[in-house]
Amino acid sequence: MITVSHLTKRYGPHTAVSDLSFHIEKGQIYGLLGPNGAGKSTTMNIMTGCLAASSGTVTVGGHDIFEEAGRAKRLLGYLPERPPVYPDRTPREYLTFVARAKGVAPEDLDRQLRRAMEVTGTAEVAHRLIKNLSKGYQQRVGIAQALLGEPEVVILDEPTVGLDPKQIIEIRSLIRDLGRDHTVILSSHILPEVQAVCQNVLILSHGRLVAWDTPENLERRFAGGAAIQLTAEAGSEEICRILAPLEGITNLDIQPRDGDACTVHLETDGEAEALCRAIFFAFSGAGRALLRLEAARTSLEDIFLELTQDADQADPPDQAPHEEEVNLS
After folding, report:
1. Hey, which of 118, 132, 156, 298 has its CA 20 to 30 A from 239?
2. Over 80: is that where the pLDDT of 237 sits?
3. At what angle do helices 135-147 and 165-178 cross, to 10 degrees?
4. Treating both helix axes as pointing N-terminal to C-terminal, what angle do 165-178 and 106-120 enclose, rounded to 10 degrees?
5. Residue 220 vs residue 54, higher pLDDT
6. DSSP for 96-132, written as a single string
7. Taking the model in full, what pTM does it have?
């Protein structure tokens, strides 16, 4: 659906995006994940034709975003980080303006307006001034404008920034609903957001693509050695005797707790689930109770921190100078 090939963007001596290449398949929700300044917004602005690239290409549905801008942009709906809404207009007035600017046919205008407002839940505030709406509803209006023209791809830049927890949950639910009918790309530096809604994750650091896969595959790829934590009603010496016959334990740390229990952290170079099973039967055979037994997984947060460490200090915010912008039409 979208192919980004060797994309680079420089601002003087600073490289915001460096030799970036990836392909977006139809019908998936993609998360563009990275710390502030990693190049997410710059990448999205180039993908949507709002910003010129220093080198490289972007094609949307086979159309070059700059050479065939009109055809490529008809396939895209875009919500920038700051919703481009007019505060002194009502949602219906604003969306009508946007629909006409996008070239929606007059006979199709009412249908598209109804659909965009129904999908985003803004029909109930259609006649209120946008400036009087909550940030959550303003964000919904911004998403509604991205849906006008019935694009195949919806691109959302930090769609939940500045929202309260209830609004964040609502917007995430809306994004999942959009994924049923559209290819969705969203950028975020918030890990739970990406894990909650995205089927594929692209991690950026210093303007480079450092990882690209499903959240589950990323966790498996970067897992390394597994860790197991347990709490048992037994003393340190007895725990050592119980665990001694078991194979695959590479490191063991025992911390006594109040009473007769101990907390144990151990590492293995084998399969954590198999070792957990062996531990369970070992303590059962010794007549000692296990109060807790769990395998600790490498989380997406661990992977993110490992791949993007020090990115916040190394990269300034990816703000695009006005003179670099290109015509949106």
Report:
1. 298
2. yes
3. 10
4. 130
5. 54
6. HHHHHHTT--HHHHHHHHHHHHHHHT-GGGTTS-GGG
7. 0.73
